[in-house]
Input
Amino acid sequence: MKIATVLRNDDYTREVEQALKEKLHAVNSPFTFVKGPGEQPDMVLSIGGDGTLLEAVHQYGIEPSYVGIHTGHLGFYADWRPEELDEFVERLMNDEPLIAEYPTVQCRISTRDGKQYEKWALNEMVLRNANLSTLVTCVYINGDELETFRGDGLIVSSPSGSTAYNKAVDGAIVHPSIEAIQLSEIASINNQAYRTINSSLVLPKHHEVELIVMNPEIMIGLDREQAVWKDVCSIRCRVGPDKVKFARYKRLTFWGRVRNSFISG
Ligand code: NAP
Output
């Protein structure tokens, strides 16, 4: 089995990677590490935080399975602490992992010149105006007009992304076994003139949200990546066809992660 590592850029994280490689070497493990960017791994070890895991997923895509070792605080995507490396190596050598599959958000971005761009995110797609003025977007669900949104932005999150930016705007936390996307508002304008639903909406797998963009320049965020886009006319989002696979060598429930991260970590 070929393993790749993706690291947070700090000395401690590099030390943890080195320690892990030495431990695997000491037990004559059958695992080999990929040598260059051209090689496709079977498993990716992300060492850092949830942000590092997002980077790993966009670097290696949906084929490999992922394991996270967190060198900061407890994470949603990372299961192992650096002080548990011996146990991790033992499980890696002897156990068959449980594979947890997390849904993604699929986005089709259409520009006024007729081009279409297929994108995806593990956490979320964020739409904001490119400058500080109001984002104006018509929101359609399955072709039915819902509202004209005016405000700072809109987030379309996956279930595993529901604990990230989506939670900060009071979106619901959705268990990753539910194949859904969630549309949440960032600071909508609600007054006598303008009105939005002002609640997060959870859409099932066969539903699609379309955002018709009125601003000439917008900012689109896909997990860690952000870019300014010009002349976008529409962004269509739905549950992606692919899921990201996490190799679980220890039992940590999603709700346990929620408690550890937000209540009593
Ligand atoms: P960052 O701004 O450096 O970190 C954002 C924080 O979100 C980090 O603490 C990160 O955890 C955490 N995080 C990432 N994915 C998560 C998840 N699924 N559930 C719970 N927490 C999660 O940005 P980054 O490290 O590049 O991560 C990008 C993510 O930041 C975006 O996908 C977005 O969700 C989030 N974000 C949140 C806000 C907000 O809450 N107001 C604003 C912008 C972006 P680690 O420390 O373990 O990496």
